Amino acid sequence: MNDLIHLFISGLNEKLQENYDTANIARYAYEFYLDHDIDDERLRYVVDYLKGMDADPAFELSKDEVTSFVRENLFYVMFR
Fold first, then answer.
1. Residue 53, domain member (yes or no)
2. Quick one: which of 25, 72, 70, 13 has its CA closest to 52?
3. How many CB atoms lie within 10 A of CB 11?
């Protein structure tokens, strides 16, 4: 697994263990985006979506939906 993906997933898992709040997930994704040069298209897509999740209720995902979204977009391609 790409080291940057692993780093993102580790941090996201920490946030998901806390009291779930879409604003916290969006903030984590935004800070990750600012701190790292993301070359992987799949990771960039996931980070971009999650960082915009608090922009409008239509973009919000539940904790389970975040987990599924990340799994489908980062891991499904890797293990097909």
1. yes
2. 25
3. 14
Locate tokens 């599924």: which residue? 68
Q: Using the CB atoms, write b or e for 27-60: b if 16+ within 10 Å.
A: bbbbebbeeeebeeebbeebbebbbebbeeeeee
Structural domain tally of the chain?
Answer: 1
Q: Is 23 exposed, middle or buried (0-12, 13-18, 19+ CB in 10 A)?
A: exposed
Give the residue numbers spanning the domain of 33.
3-75
Q: Is residue 80 part of a domain?
A: no
pLDDT tens for the 80 residues of the chain, in order: 589 999 999 999 999 999 899 999 999 999 999 999 999 999 999 999 999 999 999 999 999 999 999 999 998 644 44
